[in-house]
Fold:
Amino acid sequence: MLEVKEIHTFYGLSHILFGVSLNVDSGQVVCLLGRNGAGKTTTLKSVLGMAPPRQGQIFFKGEEVTGKEPYIMVRKGVGYVPDDRRIFADLTVGENLEIAARKTEERKDWDKNAVYELFPRLREMDSRKGGFLSGGEQKMLAIGRALMGNPEFLLLDEPTEGLAPVLVRVLRGTIERLKGFGLTVLLAEQNVKFTLRLSDYGYIIEKGQIAYKGTVKELTENEEVRKTCGIQ
Amino acid sequence: MELSQSISFAALGGHFFVGLSRAMILFVVTSGLSLVLGVLRVPNIAHGSLYMIGAFAAYTISRLFGGGSTAFWLALVISPFVVAAVSLVAERLLFQHLYQREHLMLLLFTFALMLILGDLVKLVWGAGEYRSIVPPQLLKGSASIFGSSIPRYNLFLIIIGPLVAVGLWLFTNRTKMGKIARAAAVDREMVGAVGINVSWVFAFAFVLGCFLAGLGGALVAPTISVSLGMDHDIIIEAFLIVTIGGLGNMWGAMVGSLIFGLTQSFGVLFWPQFAIVFPYTAVVIVLLWRPMGMLKSVW
Ligand SMILES: Nc1ncnc2c1ncn2[C@@H]1O[C@H](COP(=O)(O)OP(=O)(O)OP(=O)(O)O)[C@@H](O)[C@H]1O
Ligand SMILES: [Mg+2]
Structure:
């Protein structure tokens, strides 16, 4: 579904990604693990077109999409959940969802009601301003907002960041359900335990380069990986 | 004491209504400026030029249709669209490439645009000649309210102002486009990341703001002599109003316009020689008291 080939991404003059390549097959949950500043967010932003790569190529559903603007990527079926949530603070919860609504003939399962079924807490807050939600609630809203676009492919950036352990467990259930709905997910995380339990395949990124890749089993059995990720 | 005795209740009432109607014209213009400031973050100095073009267009259109009542209504309806068309061209050709620039650049650019548009108006309409529009039959003459006689046209303006306010409120709070514009005001990039082509949202907000400038120009035409220099006069007032009201806040534009219009009008009544000082004093007082404006600023 997604194929990233040797991309180099810059912020101004600083070179951040050095030839990152990765593949995500349809229906899989693939994770991108790495320390702070390793380049996880930059990789997701490159795919979405928010930080278009200067070199290399990106293919989505077989079509080259390198450097396409984010709104076009979303229309092609990509959903984006940013690590800092970026809820529209002045808009109500309901409005946050409404403006992201996007349906096509083939993709029309998600609407406001379906999102509220998934996150019943949000339904109670329909008319509350987005800026007045807690961090966890905003996280749910950011996921719900991405789902409103009826994506086939979800870019999830550090969904567990700042969440209490109980909520992390709930979130895992949610992502498993999304996978059950047929959604493909590229998940950037630092929380190794949470991530490996969910994923089919994983990449480990270090200083803007893919250091290791493999199935979850391969990754957990690899000594080097165990060391860098701190798995006991 | 002599001063206060000479001011009758009727005169007070009269000046109140005149001030109120002036405030409504100011509101129509500044609500547009405020929209552009709030959503696009552009301090558009050329906003006053669009107001002037609205007034000149209204003059020409009303002449074109014979200058009668029908001509007035046609001018009132068509001129804002003329201004909207001009602003759409300006947005697509120029503004859309400049949104990311810093404010100083935008100030210089829109200032230059004001000078250019001013010269264009001079080229098209010429300088000298006295231009005025006659209000339609329905709005001619005066009505008596609480013993003061108020020109009907001013009462018409007092009705139009709140209608524009309600319309704008419905747009920003009840339409999808309005909600998107509010979101884009705060986080443009994220609006793109939910699949919306922000470029057209910005174009729409800009054109709507300029439409209001044009409407203000058309509305003011029957109350003044339409002339060059209108752009400079209004833009200073308009920026002061959005500043005291709270940048980008529509209700702030309303409050600011009321303060400005009413102090101006009562100034004429109490101390005619120094009437001009009153609104500016009010601005200074408001800003000393609330430097960020009366209502919440989006900046
Ligand atoms: N807008 C920017 N301008 C310049 N440098 C940036 C910018 N954003 C990120 N960087 C730099 O790029 C590098 C990679 O950042 P990135 O956000 O991709 O890391 P990350 O893996 O997502 O980290 P984290 O786990 O902290 O979110 C970092 O060194 C960071 O300082
Ligand atoms: Mg990150």
About this structure: The interface with chain A takes residues 176, 179-180, 182-183, 185-187, 189-198 of chain B (CB under 8 Å). Residues 23-229 of chain B form one domain.
